[in-house]
Structure formats: C-alpha cells, structure tokens
Amino acid sequence: MWRGGALQSEAVEAVSLPDLLAQPDVLVWLDLCGPSPAELEALAGRLGLDPHAVEDASDHRERPKATRHPGHTFVTAYATRLEAEGSRGYASRLELTRVSAFVLPNALVTVRAEAADGFDIDEVLARWDDNADLLTVAGQHGVGVLLHGLLDVVVDGHFETMQSLDDAVERLEDLLFDDAVQTRLVQGHVYRLRKELVELRRVVLPMREVVNAVLRHRADADSTHELDGWYDDLYDHVLRASEWTESLRDMIATLFETNLSLQDAHLNAVMKKLAGWAAIIAVPTAVTGWFGQNVPYPGFGDLLGVWQSLVLILVCSVVLYVLFRRRDWI
To answer: What does 1-16 look like in DSSP terms, one character per residue?
Structure first.
C-alpha cells in the first residue's frame, strides 16, 4: 500500500481493501498466486468485479486481451521463458505463465494461476521502485505506473525468449552446414523450433491489441496524458516483438527448406557417383563377356589373349575414372 506516493505497508489484508480504496490518497497492489475460484469470487464481491472478468482470470484457455468493465479494466497476458537446450529432447521448451490484472482507479490486483516461480515478480517491483515518484493517485498515474511496469516486464520477457530462439537458429545453421551433419538431428531441432515459435506467436501477437486497448481506456480516464509516452514506447516494443516473430518464422522456414535442398543435393551426388562406378564396372564386364565367347579371336586359346583382355580392362577403366574424376562425378 502506498499513501501519497510513499510506501506504507507491504502486507495488506484482502478484507480491508474496500476501506482502503475509499481513501483518495491510497494506492494498493494485491497479488494472488494460484487462488481458488472461491477466493476470487469473494474478492470480486468486495471490489465489485465483473463476473465474466473473474471467470476469465481462472480460465487457462484465455488468450491475451484487455476488456473494459464498469469500474475496472481486466487485462490478461502471458509471460514466457525458454528452458535450457537439451532439457526436454525434441519437446517444446517454452514455458508460459498467465498473468491477469484487474485495474481499478487506485488499485491493481494481479492473478497468477501458475506457480510463483514461473514469473519474476521481483523485476516488476524493481520497475515500480525506479518510478516511485510517480506512484500518486491523482490523474491515475499510480495505477498507470503499476500496470505499465507489469506489462513492460512481460514484453521484455518476450524479447528474451525470442533472443534465445534466435540463438538456437544460429546454432542450427552451423550444424546444418557441418561436414558431418546428422540429418535426423537437424530435422528434430527444426521441428522443435517451429513448435515453440507457434506457441510463442499465440501470446505475442495479441499483445498489440492488449496495449492498444489499454491506451484507449487510459485516454478516456486520464486527462493529463502524462504517461502516454511510456505506453507509446511499450506499444513500439510490442510491435518490434511481433515483427521479430515474423522474421524468426521466415528463418526457420528457410532452415527447413535448406535442409531438404541439401538432402536432395547429397542424394544427387550419391547417385552420380554410383552411376560413374557402374560405368567403370561395365567395362570389365563387357570385355570379359566378349572374350568369353566360343569363337576364335586374336589370342584365342593362348596366354596372350588373357593379357590382352586384362590390359584392355585396365586401360578403359583408368580412362573412364580420369574422365569422371575431372568432371567431379566420383
């Protein structure tokens, strides 16, 4: 609880929220981690929260969104984290943590359905401490700063996840053009990256609508527009994150196509070498077949005929080998 922009208490009971929010100089943040439906309903009764927003806060299938209700705005976003390489084989390493928020005129109620370690709330607190001078209720600056800090940490987490995916793509490029490339290994990594990117895009792309809706709602509620620059910068970060997912999708698609092209080129090289060796082997087959016929020929029935056929096989085979080698067929 902040009073007049100064931190007053770090432990506030939920039952005392209605009395605190009735005071004009008080700003409150309440964080709920893994609350039960009964706890959410009890809180909704005290604060007058919309039942549909309360239901969305406990639904794991909700997409990122921002909706306006009488007396408050409901926001849902997903924090992302990519686990270390090799921790899950070819399964997706992307971890999603849903973070919902009820934005009241002088209070922010956050709801995290997953475990507390899935989202770094300490980073959010650090952002708020860096801008403690703006944590005032007048003009809704206080709750605006709280919401901005929360969304900013979520979007920064998106950037960190995409940077990890970008690094994984670069490592895969080096592996793809390695002389001892393992095709199955490359295919497994490409499949995993595509799956992780699809999951990431589902929570990153809707953030444009979320921040845009928050901007519209703030424009209606705050006449001073002092924080508009902050939210414009946040919206720019969201756009950059969306564009980065597009470039990552193109890069992964290029990796997939390049892997197929390299496999086709390798297969063509193998077929070319097999054809060259087949032509060389066909020479002794033809010569021995010819000299094995039952009609007289120069050297028939004589040791000279054996040496004559042997020399002919060696000369023709060496000539073909040299010709194919110069053309890089073998």
So the answer is: -EETTEE--S---GGG
Other CB atoms within 10 Å distance of the CB of residue 50 = 17
Q: Kindly report the number of other CB atoms within 10 A of residue 272's CB atom.
A: 15
Q: Report the 10 Å Cβ neighbour count for 97.
A: 20
**Using CA atoms, how far apart are residues 221 and 157, in angstroms rounded to an integer?**
28
Q: H helices within the chain, ranges in order?
A: 17-21, 37-47, 51-57, 121-130, 141-176, 183-204, 207-221, 228-291, 303-326
Distance CA(265)–CA(257), nearest Å, equals 12
Query: To which residue do tokens 């705005």 refer?
Result: 73
Integer CA distances (angstroms), 30 to 17, 134, 168, 194, 250, in order: 9, 19, 38, 37, 41
Tell me the pLDDT tens digit for each residue of 69-106: 888 899 999 999 888 776 567 788 888 889 999 998 88
